[in-house]
Amino acid sequence: MMDLAHDRLVQLCEDLKLHGVADGYAALAAAAAEQGRSFTDYLEAVLQAERDFRRARSPRRWCAWRASRR
């Protein structure tokens, strides 16, 4: 059953182009459960993982966007 849920989540992430979430959600969920973190803390970590994944994939685009915000 867990594998089906995992497969569905990964497929949804891929459909939504959330590749960082697909790569990291399981490990982040395990760490959050082990540390007794709240769902909000877990969600923050997942979103940070997605942000970091995107930044790592396109540093030029990130730098250009960041420069335009200053």
Q: Topology, please?
A:
Elements: H1 2-15, H2 19-35, H3 39-57, H4 59-68
Q: Overview of this structure, please?
A:
By secondary structure, the protein is mainly α. It has one domain. It contains 4 helices and no strands. It has helices at residues 2-15, 19-35, 39-57, 59-68. Helix 1 (2-15) crosses helix 2. The radius of gyration is 14 Å and the shape is flat.
Radius of gyration (CA) equals: 14 Å
Please state the average pLDDT score.
88
What percentage of amino acids are in beta strands?
Answer: under 5%
Query: Can you give the helix content as a percent range?
Result: over 70%
Per DSSP, the total helix count is: 4
What count of domains describes the coordinates?
1
Number of E-state strands: 0
Low-confidence stretches: none
Characterize the biggest β-sheet.
none
What is the element string, with H for helices and E for strands?
HHHH
**Structural class designation:** mainly alpha
Q: What is the overall shape?
A: flat
Distance between the termini: 48 Å
Give a quick rundown of the structure.
The chain is mainly alpha-helical.
